[in-house]
Automatic annotation (TrEMBL):
One Pfam family named in its UniProt record: UPF0184
Superkingdom field: Eukaryota
Full protein name: Uncharacterized protein
Residue ranges, annotated region (Disordered): 1-38
Compositionally biased spans, kind Acidic residues: 1-11, 23-38
Cited PANTHER family: BUBLIN COILED-COIL PROTEIN, UPF0184 PROTEIN C9ORF16
InterPro entries linked to this entry: BBLN_eukaryota (IPR005374)
């Protein structure tokens, strides 16, 4: 806002800023938003970590079952080979 002073000199005056529009308040709002974003991201990462842990456990279970199946197949194959050898001998 401009105010006329003595001898037609022009003086500039600053309007007081609204408290809610100060840079500090903007920073606080951004900080709050950032904090909420980080909390949300942290929660999503925790959920992802839990899902990955579950997948890893399922993978370990499947791997253990496959090991047992392979062992069972080896034993069955060995029994079949032994049986065929016995039949050839007789």
């Amino acid at each position: 806002m401009r105010v006329m002073a003595d001898d037609d000199m022009i003086e500039e005056t600053n309007q007081p800023q609204d408290i809610h529009d100060s840079p500090e308040d903007d920073f606080d709002e951004e900080s709050d938003d950032s904090e909420e974003d980080f909390e949300s991201l942290n929660l999503q990462l925790d959920q992802l970590n839990s899902a990955l842990d579950e997948l890893e456990q399922k993978n370990d279970d499947i791997h253990a079952q496959l090991i047992l199946l392979l062992q069972s197949n080896r034993e069955a194959r060995q029994q079949i080979q032994d049986s065929l050898k016995d039949q050839e001998i007789t």
